[in-house]
UniProtKB/TrEMBL annotation:
Example GO molecular function: aldehyde-lyase activity
UniProt superkingdom: Bacteria
Species per Swiss-Prot/TrEMBL record: Pseudonocardia broussonetiae
InterPro entries assigned: Aldolase/citrate-lyase_domain (IPR005000), HpcH-HpaI_aldolase (IPR050251), Pyrv/PenolPyrv_kinase-like_dom (IPR015813), Pyrv_kinase-like_dom_sf (IPR040442)
Signal peptide annotation: none
Cellular component per GO, a single term: cytoplasm
Identification of the protein by name: 2,4-dihydroxyhept-2-ene-1,7-dioic acid aldolase
Residue intervals passing through the bilayer: none
Keywords noted in UniProt: Lyase, Metal-binding
Domain HpcH/HpaI aldolase/citrate lyase: residue ranges: 25-212
Family stated for the protein in its record: Belongs to the HpcH/HpaI aldolase family.
SUPFAM superfamilies, A to Z: Phosphoenolpyruvate/pyruvate domain (SSF51621)
Pfam families (alphabetical): HpcH_HpaI (PF03328)
């Protein structure tokens, strides 16, 4: 019987008192997803629909591949889009991360897209969430919803955004945020302005009772951010990892 993705990966890590370890995937190949999920070291994998190459069919195949190994799946949406959010949540993903959420109105639109009434306006469609006798309404209530902080405006309004009912937290995209702050594009960055942004996001989430997440491309950097208090940290990303492996293969 086909399994649905675990509803406990990220939340189980939090219940155990540690940050959830996340993998980031842009290549829409179910075999790659299954290899990553089968290692048993990640609490979740995130499928990137914004900058990755996923379409609907490859997204569904990737969700099934991860589910075979009990690994929870998150999706980075291409935008705050109700149809796309509903589609991936109907597949049974554990949560969504929405890019470019600059203000309260956009955050509320995200909640509307991801939550069933009365909190939101998501349409009820248990495509995979009812498999095995599961309760799709309960699954919907457990879905995680993160708004990305990637712009100066989002950083300025982080406290207001984090307080929007129905959001579980904020997720920092250091690449776009660095560009927005005039620092250029980079990952695993150490500029004082970025660390100040991290502190502001952590404080905003703490005040709202939510969690903070952050993207990274190295385990060491992710561990440092977990030590800072981030609850969801990307510890591995497919394209940087593949590139580094190829670069290291020559002599």
């Amino acid at each position: 019987m086909t399994q649905t993705p675990s509803a406990s990966g990220v939340r189980a890590a939090w219940a155990a008192g540690r940050a959830a370890r996340n993998g980031w995937i842009t290549v829409p190949d179910p075999h790659l997803v299954e290899v990553v999920a089968s290692r048993g070291v990640l609490d979740a994998v995130t499928l990137d629909l914004q900058h990755g190459l996923f379409d609907r069919a490859s997204t569904a195949a990737a969700v099934r591949a991860a589910a075979l190994h009990g690994t929870a799946v998150l999706v980075r949406l291409s935008a705050v889009d109700a149809a796309e959010a509903g589609f991936v949540l109907d597949l049974g993903v554990q949560g969504v991360i929405a890019p470019m959420v600059d203000d309260v109105a956009t955050a509320r639109a995200l909640v509307d897209a991801c939550r069933l009434p009365p909190l939101g306006r998501r349409s009820y469609g248990p495509i995979r969430t009812a498999f095995g006798g599961a309760d799709p309404v309960a699954a919907a209530g457990q879905a995680l919803v993160f708004a990305m902080v990637e712009t100066a405006g989002a950083l300025e309004r982080a406290g207001e955004i984090a307080a929007v009912e129905g959001l579980d937290g904020l997720f920092v995209g250091p690449g776009d945020l660095g560009v927005a702050l005039g620092l250029g594009a980079a990952q695993n960055r150490e500029e004082p302005e970025i660390h100040d942004a991290f502190a502001r996001v952590l404080a905003a989430c703490g005040a709202a009772g939510g969690r903070a997440g952050v993207h990274a491309t190295s385990a060491d950097y992710a561990k440092a951010r977990a030590d800072d208090g981030f609850g969801l940290v990307t510890v591995w990303s497919d394209l940087p990892a593949l590139a580094a492996s190829v670069d290291a293969s020559t002599w």
